[in-house]
């Protein structure tokens, strides 16, 4: 959910250095699974490897990701965030935090309290849902 909010946040910004929402999803995915191959990244994103390859081509040209031979297979390449890619995500989060902090500070006290209550309720629902989810050994699918 946080990643989706970050993608929407980036999409709403009007900067020349901003990456597309799809490219941002790649960066977030690599942040959590750095060094995976195109097929695995495609599975994570729900996209065809050819589409992911084109996204990575653009990100590599921007200096945000790099490809390297896989240590496991000579036929595969791994994809990793570069230092510039990590810095981009860090800067994005820093800018977002500044703007959100200013927005919350500008809210009326009653609105801030309502926001807190709503987020608190959301967190409780997520925790309750996670507690009801079957463990990794159960083999059953989660109810929808």
TrEMBL record:
GO terms for biological process: response to stress. Pfam families: MarR. Keywords: DNA-binding, Transcription, Transcription regulation. PANTHER family: REGULATORY PROTEIN MARR, TRANSCRIPTIONAL REGULATOR, MARR FAMILY. This is MarR family transcriptional regulator. The keyword Ligase does not apply. Signal peptide: none annotated. It comes from Streptomyces pacificus.
């Amino acid at each position: 959910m946080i990643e989706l909010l970050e993608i929407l946040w980036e999409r709403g910004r009007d900067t020349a250095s901003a990456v597309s929402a799809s490219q941002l999803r790649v960066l977030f995915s690599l942040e959590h699974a750095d060094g995976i191959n195109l097929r695995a990244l495609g599975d994570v994103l729900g996209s065809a490897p050819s589409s992911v390859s084109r996204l990575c081509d653009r990100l590599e040209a921007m200096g945000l990701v790099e490809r390297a031979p896989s240590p496991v297979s000579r036929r595969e390449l791994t994809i990793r965030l570069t230092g510039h890619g990590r810095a981009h995500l860090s800067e994005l989060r820093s800018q977002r935090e500044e703007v959100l902090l200013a927005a919350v500070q500008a809210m009326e006290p009653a609105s801030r309290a309502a926001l807190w209550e709503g987020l608190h309720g959301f967190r409780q629902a997520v925790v309750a849902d996670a507690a009801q989810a079957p463990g990794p050994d159960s083999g059953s699918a989660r109810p929808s």
